[in-house]
Amino acid sequence: MTSPTSSDSSDYRSPLLGRPGAAEAQGTDAAVDSAGVAWHYGDPLGEQRAAHSGLIVVDRSHRKVLRVTGPDAAHFLNNLLSQKLDDAAPGFAAATLDLDIQGRILHHADVLRTDDAFYLDLPASQASTFLDFLQKMVFWSQVEVAEADLAVLTLLGDAAPPAVAAHASRDVPWGGVPRRDLLVERASLAETVAALESAGARLAGLMAFTAERVRALEPEKAADLDDKSIPHEIPSWIGRDDLPGAVHLEKGCYRGQETVARVENLGRSPRVLVMLQLDGSAPEDPVPGAEITGPAGGRALGRLGTVVHDCDFGPIGLALVRRNALEGQQLSIGPTAVMVDPSSLPREKGEQAGRAAVNRLRGH
Where does the GCVT N-terminal domain lie (predicted)? Predict the structure, then answer.
């Protein structure tokens, strides 16, 4: 029988939900992956603000962690996923994607390489299909793929993370405040959090993490993407310079690579992920999944994803917006006026090499 606190259960409840003030996500907040952990502990905006003056610890134990081991683990994962993992050294941390043959995103996971394994964590709603896919692809490879009884804790803030016992840890390169993820034995989750609090970290709910995730332009698949989403819609997921992103542009074949290469070399994605500033005077926040249009309605120009209240900006959200609607247009979601945050606009990388070659052949 499954334990009520097991990550195998759809009714998972973190032991930290017993803390005073713990509140679960309600209404539109529940559109993000939040079931089973605290959305806040009574002071949501203060909890997020503490990340900008100290250190917070966020319970993300509702996620599932997969472990891939064996002599062929690195090449096995490298052949299936978008990240270059065949030569990943212990300590390597990044994201990775599983794509379909058209290059559309099926699964998004964070990955960590240790001395003896790869760990991939992702929302519980994606875990069973991802685990099934990986296990079916083992064939003759010397690989074992299984769920690990580990929980994810995330530290956010400028203060140095304290040293506490953890199975593994990774520093996450993203566009927000400094972030470190800890993988801890699920049975010692509460004990580890207590040790972090004793060392000066403040316990914060998932709302604080979600606000920082929106600021960092880090989407969540179920809330922010749809069944047509491709990697280039999220510019930070394309590995460039020293940032590994989720897609390595110079690795061998994997399912969906043709779409990645074509967009990288010849064009741009029609949509791109941006952060929206929402009108805080509206009586209700718009619903994730709502259409973004011009001020008088009409043709859909984008799709709203995560909506969250931020300690500095008020209501903000992530959205996939058509590139031709990013500048010079007033946007709205029903009666709510919205504005694309200028800092979230993609930085164009100039003419693609493939497009330049085509233009040269055409004499342009």
Answer: 47-171
Per-residue pLDDT tens over the stretch 7-46: 444 689 999 999 999 999 998 888 999 999 999 999 999 9
38-92 pLDDT, tens per residue?
999 999 999 999 999 999 999 999 999 999 999 999 999 999 999 999 999 999 9
CATH classification (class only), 271-344? mainly beta
User: Into which CATH architecture does domain 7-269 fall?
Assistant: 2-Layer Sandwich (3.30)
Break the chain into its structural domains and give their ranges.
7-269, 271-344
Instruction: Compute how many other C-beta atoms are within 10 angstroms of the C-beta atom of residue 212.
Output: 27
pTM of the model: 0.92
- CB-CB contact of 13 with 5 (8 Å): yes
Burial of 306 (0-12, 13-18, 19+ CB in 10 A): buried
Q: Distance (Å, rounded) from C-alpha 39 to C-alpha 36?
A: 9
DSSP H helices, the chain, are 44-49, 73-80, 124-136, 189-198, 206-215, 221-224, 257-266, 353-361
Q: How confident is the model at residue 125 (pLDDT cuts 50, 70, 90)?
A: very high
Based on DSSP, count helices (H) and strands (E) in the chain, helices before strands.
8, 16
